[in-house]
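Why predict the complex rather than its parts? Because the way molecules touch one another can change local conformation, and only a joint prediction can capture that. The input here totals 228 residues.
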Amino acid sequence: QQQVKQSPQSLIVQKGGISIINCAYENTAFDYFPWYQQFPGKGPALLIAIRPDVSEKKEGRFTISFNKSAKQFSLHIMDSQPGDSATYFCAALGKGSARQLTFGSGTQLTVLP
Amino acid sequence: NAGVTQTPKFQVLKTGQSMTLQCAQDMNHEYMSWYRQDPGMGLRLIHYSVGAGITDQGEVPNGYNVSRSTTEDFPLRLLSAAPSQTSVYFCASSYSGGRGNYGYTFGSGTRLTVV
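Output of the joint prediction:
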């Protein structure tokens, strides 16, 4: 019953290139969409997040694009660096008092030097 | 601030044994959650709490129990370990319910193997 679908499963880009990870959600019970970055042996760490009333949010080299009508959102990493090599998870935060995250399946990004 | 502290970092259990994974946070967060991470499946919610004395089930609660007697601690109990519970377990906390610039803070995880 995966409510947040993420693709691709793995991604290899050259240094300086653009990394793009896509996610889609299946219902409207979410009202906040964060992205988490995870390095091996570590817990996920909040990278960037967006509200559904905003179409784009940019923080440094990281940009979220959000399409509410299509129920899709994506992470763009500009000028990708080897240090960006990690697993990236999109997530959706549920409405109401519970406020819990539903995660996508993750994308393992490798940036070649 | 230590953030979210999980212990132990590694554990090997035999089938049928029980154990408790510890989670403590020093940020006075109201919301706390337990996730398991399995390859290709992302993180799946096991149990969560929105405050001391309040807990509820997530997506995959079977075989696990939780309690929240204090704001700081949220232990996860495996009642009778099974090989299917081999996974990496993460505890997370948030004061804002995951919104804003604070989001959820995750611990570094417990890698559990059940043989």
